[in-house]
Structures are given as structure tokens and as C-alpha cells.
Amino acid sequence: MGTVFNIQHFSVNDGRGIRTVVFLKGCPLRCAWCANPESQKRSPEMGWTKGECIGCGECRKKLEALSCCFKDDRLYWNRSASFDPDRVRKVCPSGAFHVIGKEMTADEVLDEVLKDRAFYETSGGGITLSGGEPLMQPDFACEILQKAAAAGIHRTIETCGYASGENYERVVSLVDELIADVKLMDPDKHKVWTGRSNEPIIDNLRRAREAYPDLPINVRTPVIPGVNDTEEEIAEILEFTKEIGADYELLRYHRLGEPKYESLNRSYPMGDRELPAETFRKLQGLLQLEN
Ligand code: SF4
Ligand code: SF4
After folding, report:
1. Closest to 127 in 3D by CA, of 113, 137, 140
2. What are residue 208's phi and psi, to 5 degrees?
3. Which residues form a coiled coil (predicted)?
4. pTM: predicted TM-score of the whole model, two decimal places
5. Same domain for 224 and 259?
């Protein structure tokens, strides 16, 4: 069994062709700009959607262990308390208070993925394992990928790369395409903004290239205001991508994840930062100069 927090059909942004993206729960990093904060905790957790709450108070009365209470029109609860997901589902009549993360077997995941097989055949797509960080569940990730390989499906992984060399190697040996985040080259700065050094990430990528010289590797950098939005930072990563023979892509910072923090009872760590369109255009120009 593994923990999945979403399965997205018909994605065209997570590898070649039309893809089914399986999001595994858990991430070793804590990027301040994370747009999927619900992915970070390894175990299932609770979320609350204000717009769906009918104010019946059942959660407060019946889920004592979670110590639910309303304040300023918002639901608060004890995020570290354990809970029974089935009980929560029965208690909240509208589904506003909901469980994020579902225990599934690799066969159940594959059954869902194979529903899209016809689209893979016409578009060259397949399955993409994403997260969170799929390498947080290495056995589960390997089992899904092995089953997908046996079914003849193209396999991609999207990873932050923070994992033991052994687990990285096991999972990468089973994919046809690797999409890897490199957010910063400076290990200390990386630690400040994500909670961990980038050394294992860089080492794993170098080793993957050595072991699989023909593997398509696509490095992505989310451009974050005040973190890595300078020509120096991006040029340094660009140099690294050339060293390992990877394609390189910049992703523009957005605030789409902000409401999710409220839904998880957390505050948004990026405050009111924005990335000007002009800054992003200038940085993209660096990549075009290379082509
Ligand atoms: S690596 Fe991705 S999922 Fe993990 S914290 Fe950073 S942005 Fe979020
Ligand atoms: S049980 Fe659900 S709908 Fe009722 S108050 Fe709690 S969150 Fe709102």
C-alpha cells in the first residue's frame, strides 16, 4: 500500500504526450513557495474548504480527538492528532472537512491509469509519478513503475531529487524520462529556502546521467522572487544542465497554492511576493541565447 493524494487525467504538462499523473504523498523538502502544501506530510491529513461548510457543528461535537473549533469564521483543529479517515467522512455531511491522501495498492493505481491507455497510444503519453516527492515511497513507486512497464506504458517521474542514492537509482532505472527540479545551486541558500541542502539532489542527477547516458532528462527551475530570480542564479543552473546534458525549462512563480494553506490551517509563507513578468522574460532570454 502507498498513499496517493491525487490522480490527474489528461495532463499535457508533465512529460511527453497526454499523461495520467499519480501524486504520491510526502516530501522531504519544505519549499516556502510550495503550491501543493497538502503533499508535504507523508500520512493522510485533514483539510477544510470554507465554501463547502454548512456550519452544522458536527465536527466539533463528534470528532473530539481533533479538538475542532470555529474562530473568525474559520475551522481550526489539532493538526498533529491522529484520526480515523472513515469516521471523518461519515461525520461531515458536506465534505467540507475532508481527508487528504488515500491508501491504495499499486494494482488499484494501475487500474485507474489504464483507463487512459487509448490516449497514450495516440499521443505517445503515459504515466507520470509526481508528488510531493515520489521517492518518499520508493517501494510503492517501483511497484507502480514495474506494473506500468509490464503493461507497455511510457513512464516519467517528476522528482525534487532529495533521496538516498540507492532509492534514486532503483526508481530511475524504471523510467523512460526524468523530470527533475533544481531550485538553487548554492547548498546553504537551498537549505534556507527548502529546509535541506541540495547536495544529494545534484549528486543524484550526476549519477543518473552517468548510469543512463541516453535517458531524457528535463531540469526545471521554478523562478521565485527574492530566491533565485537573478541572471547569476539561473546562469549557474544552466551551466549544470549543460554539464549533464539535460533540457532546461523555467517555471514562473504563481500564487495558486495560497488558498490551500488556509484550507490546511497554515499561513502562506511567501507573503505578498510577486514575480514581475519582465523579470521572467529576461531570465527566459538567457535560455534562448543558448539555443
Ligand atoms: S519539492 Fe515540491 S512538493 Fe516538495 S515542498 Fe518543494 S515545491 Fe512542495
Ligand atoms: S461537520 Fe463539516 S459542514 Fe459541519 S461544521 Fe464541520 S466542517 Fe462544516
Report:
1. 113
2. -60, -40
3. none
4. 0.93
5. yes
Ligand 2 test: best mutation among 50, 92, 264, most atoms within 8 Å of CB?
Answer: 92
56 and 170 in a single domain? The answer is no
H-helix or E-strand containing 11?
strand 2-11
Choosing from 98, 119, 142, the residue where a domain stops is 98
Identify the domain containing residue 124 by its residue range: 2-41+102-290
**What is the atom index within ligand 2 of the atom nearest the CA of 70?**
5
The verdict on the CB of residue 55 being under 6 Å from ligand 2 is yes
CATH number, domain at 90?
Answer: 3.30.70
Closest CA to 248 of 196, 186, 205, 195: 205
Assign residue 133 a region: left if phi > 0, alpha if psi is -120 to 50, beta otherwise? beta
pLDDT digit string, tens, across residues 123-182: 999 999 999 999 999 999 999 999 999 999 999 999 999 999 999 999 999 999 999 999
Q: Are residues 120 and 259 in the same domain?
A: yes
Residue 290 belongs to what H/E stretch?
Answer: helix 277-290
Is the beta carbon of 125 within 6 A of some atom in ligand 1? no
Do residues 195 and 89 share a domain?
A: no
Q: Say yes or no: CB of residue 245 within 6 Å of ligand 2.
A: no
CB 135, CB 168: distance < 8 Å: yes
Q: Are residues 25 and 91 in the same domain?
A: no
Residue where a domain terminates, one of 59, 80, 98: 98
Mutate to test the pocket of ligand 1, among 3, 40, 160 (most ligand atoms within 8 A of CB): 160
Q: How many domains does the chain have?
A: 2
